[in-house]
Specification:
about 260 residues, mainly alpha, 9 helices, globular
């Protein structure tokens, strides 16, 4: 960012000096990227579901994860202390606004770039009252949670097997990271690298719940009818094409995104 007398800032590579690295930092960030990659896969499916289009194919997910890795590399080159990953709150914004056009995403990215370069422009957003921001966050996070919970309609909840997996995964996903937050120095293996990796992994709600649920679902025996049914197949979306997308993808200025299928 620029100083107080400058109204604009032009970031460049190496602005904060030569990059430094250590084994603990590299291993810790690798663990964090593994967790965020798993989270991103869930975001892709949730975004497709709330946009009323078929689930993304494997090649689309691979491209998404690859782009996240590339942007994280570029962010590090510019001196950013964090990586780049999918933003779950945007899924909630799609559910609220009913706008899933990619043109909107491009315009939003342009506004973010302008905000990062022109400091006076980005200062406008700091005038938004905290109660307004809190209200928006409450609605958006609530929508994201509801979209995730809606996937349970593809699960046979009359099965005690599925109820056990669901309940145990949710409980551990909430309990373990909460315990880690209250006991920050509890992990002591004698290696700072291992301590950092375990702390990052055990502090991530989504990873804990998802990993336990994945492990239990693939190890606890049960009939196929009582296991999770893949989203899209039960809804008649076995192919990668879908009916015409109605008003969901309409942009407010009249643009329309005809996303009727995933393309290579």
């Amino acid at each position: 960012m620029g100083d107080e007398e400058s109204s604009s800032s032009s970031p460049h590579i190496g602005e904060w000096g030569a990059p430094t690295a250590s084994a603990a930092t590299i291993l810790g960030l690798l663990a964090a990227m593994m967790v965020t990659s798993i989270e991103s896969v869930g975001d892709y499916y949730a975004c497709a579901r709330i946009s009323q289009i078929p689930p993304p194919p494997n090649h689309a997910i691979n491209r998404g994860i690859g782009i996240e890795g590339l942007t994280t590399f570029l962010a590090a080159a510019w001196g950013s202390p964090v990586g780049t990953t999918s933003f779950s709150q945007n899924i909630g914004a799609i559910g609220i606004t009913k706008v899933a056009s990619r043109r909107v995403v491009l315009w939003s990215a342009f506004i973010m770039v302008v905000s990062g370069v022109i400091c006076k422009f980005s200062a406008i957003f700091t005038t938004i009252p905290d109660p307004v921001v809190g209200g928006v966050f409450a609605v958006v996070f609530g929508m994201v949670s509801a979209v995730g919970m809606s996937s349970l309609q593809f699960v046979d909840l009359n099965s005690s097997r599925n109820l056990l997996i669901l309940g145990f995964s949710l409980f551990c996903g909430l309990m373990i990271p909460g315990w880690m937050a209250e006991n920050p120095g509890a992990i002591r293996t004698g290696s700072s690298e291992v301590d950092q990796i375990l702390t990052v992994i055990l502090s991530t709600h989504m990873f804990i719940g998802g990993f336990i649920g994945f492990t239990l679902d693939n190890t606890i025996p049960g009939k196929g009818a009582s296991k999770v049914e893949a989203p899209g197949r039960s809804a008649g979306c076995s192919s990668m094409t879908s009916p015409a997308i109605p008003r969901m993808l309409t942009f407010t200025t009249g643009f329309r995104s005809e996303m009727t299928s995933w393309t290579d």
